[in-house]
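BUG: 3D viewer hangs when loading the predicted structure for this chain

Environment: internal workstation, default settings.
Expected: structure renders.
Actual: progress bar stalls at 90%.

Input used:
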Amino acid sequence: MTEDREVSMTRWLDWAREIQALSQTGYHYSENGYQRERYARLSDIAAEIISEHTDLELSAVSEIFHRQLGYATPRVDVRGAVFRDGKLLLVRERGDGGWTMPGGWADVGNLPSAAAEREVFEEAGFTVKAIKVIGVYDANRSFPLELFHAFKVVFLCELVGGEPRPSNETSQVEFFGEDEIPEKLSGERTHLRHIKDAFRALENPAVEAVFD
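Structure tokens produced before the viewer hung:
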């Protein structure tokens, strides 16, 4: 995908996300059927934009959007930065073959740190303890396509125990030095920026958390 096409895709996807968020929030505060009808139509327009530019079925996207209730807010993605002998734990995603720090969407009811610890265990087989926030990032995912805006929280985690164990989402579990990071990272799950910040936090425990 060329850089121009990536920029173009980001713009229409940003527009569709914003329209959907405005629709969801407006519908939540609607005072009558007329307003609800208009905001529901905005949701359909957002779905049409996405369906027109992807291979996603319009009905499927519309259903996802109409299931969103209440004030629209970003989702939360958590990642665990785990080190052993100065090397960073990465897992290989089965979906796209790219490497990422283990993590995923936080579940309702979880503490953010507990969500990161759980994801590391589920995706890599290691028991860890979150000890520090490395950074809070904007994660407006677009590659691979994600329909909703997200924030990403990366935790520095202490390795407690366990053995490397792939999961139904991951095919490999490896540790990499800073000069050994694979070229192919997994979409928006982990960027080189996140990895560099993780090594910086390991080298200097007093360094402040970064944020967007």
